[in-house]
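Problem 12. The chain below contains 108 residues. Write out its predicted structure in token notation.
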Amino acid sequence: MIDLKENEIEIMICPANESKTGSAEVGLKIKHIPTNIRVESLTEKTQHRNKIITIDKLEREICKQVNNTLEKNQNLHDELLNVFKIEAKAISWLTNPKNLWKVQPLYL
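Solution.
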């Protein structure tokens, strides 16, 4: 469950998709301002039910975005770790006295 603050969301009321003239069916669109994620529910007959559905959708979308960001960061972390492992192996190979005779001097 995500703690959504009132100042972080923008709620817009709109007529439901198949709203008949004079009906009380009301849809909702919610925008999460920090992430700019927008969700809507126009299917239920009451505004309250549509609000519950849209908040649930919004929480799921925010969780997806957080998980994607964490996954990207983990991939970057793994790539950097591999680079440092390769460099550490090269440094340990170069600093090992047994390998010093294998290094050829560079003549220009």
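Discussion. The first strand starts at residue 9 and ends at 15. Students who got a different answer should revisit the alignment rule from Section 12.3.
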